[in-house]
Amino acid sequence: xxxxxxxxxxxxxxxxxxxxxxxxxxxxxxxxxxxxxxxxxxxxxxxxxxxxxxxxxxxxxxxxxxxxxxxxxxxxxxxxxxxxxxxxxxxxxxxxxxxxxxxxxxxxxxxxxxxxxxxxxxxxxxxxxxxxxxxxxxxxxxxxxxxxxxxxxxxxxxxxxxxxxxxxxxxxxxxxxxxxxxxxxxxxxxxxxxxxxxxxxxxxxxxxxxxxxxxxxxxxxxxxxxxxxxxxxxxxxxxxxxxxxxxxxxxxxxxxxxxxxxxxxxxxxxxxxxxxxxxxxxxxxxxxxxxxxxxxxxxxxxxxxxxxxxxxxxxxxxxxxxxxxxxxxxxxxxxxxxxxxxxxxxxxxxxxxxxxxxxxxxxxxxxxxxxxxxxxxxxxxxxxxxxxxxxxxxxxxxxxxxxxxxxxxxxxxxxxxxxxxxxxxxxxxxxxxxxxxxxxxxxxxxxxxxxxxxxxxxxxxxxx
Length: 464
Description:
By secondary structure, this protein is of the alpha+beta class. It has 14 helices and 15 strands. A 10-stranded mixed sheet has the order 5-6-8-15-9-14-13-12-11-10, with helices on both faces. A 5-stranded antiparallel sheet has the order 1-2-3-4-7, with helices on both faces. Helix 4 (98-109) runs antiparallel to helix 11 (314-323) and helix 13 packs across helix 14 (449-461). The two termini are 44 Å apart.
């Protein structure tokens, strides 16, 4: 009887939500293009000719009062300008470092990326060390914001398309480079200026971390109603999570039971031979990267032609090799090995900034899986990072095995800036309807943890 009553209630909810959706769809014109970018991969139908910005966008020009925008290909001068703004901002994450941008161009995307710079006209004549951009800086004002743009999705509406921040399976975090002491209202106006300059309908950030300045500026802009009307309309949805350890207070250590198990497994491995952790940087890291790829491909990533291992894709190899050869200050790449005698049984790929060490990749030899060599190496890496004065050790993503370590969690969101409140409302309505419908079909209701996990899985299951 209870089961029948529950099914009947679920059916009533579905009918009510369908009626709600019909009413909103009748009021707001939800076009076929809008539905496509909500329920399918927005890049799946893009051709090679659609991977660059239109020619008219790649020209410098003033957009609105007080701000100027310049969109252009990523070259050496653009990277140096990025580096100048980066240096003026203090401690920033690795994915905002100029060498990360350089690796995107050299490895993953070739010439399909553009760089966008926003200048404030309030401080014209600001100094710039890049000679090719000196006249632009003097004419446009102070550089306050830069971001990388990847591709466009053409729309049936004339001159309207979607701009994307770089999106790839190996780009799990991304952000906008914002200058020091830029107001939230100025950030919002800058994003609106980019959308207006590029004549696009929306700008999509796929993996925006919770501590992002852009995230903070959304909804925190201190301005009047008239200025707020010029801001983009934002839509948030959960994308993934990022796990990290706070090393500053000394409390981030393996939990008691895990620590005892690792101590026991370490003793068993030491009975088989000499166990040693080796940490490589500079030129030695590039040589150690070869062994890293071999260990990674020895497991499931390299079997059955799945091509998910790094050495199965020349673009990925070039991307990670480029990161190992930085040309700008402020980032230190490392390769970590856990060796049993002379055999490498676990590896890590790490990028370090001033106070944070980031573990981008972890792999191990599955023949030694019983001994948890990856966890043994992580334990040593954590202690070494603490001894070196790092305040934070980040896993970048939040893999299932990390739960045993009880890390701190930072949410990561897919954030969309719309130029039209109508399109934003339609996207928000359709996403909410899909979430509630799935909750009904799975026997859960909106607002529960299960519903949230369904949305996260759906978003993360596609290209990040």
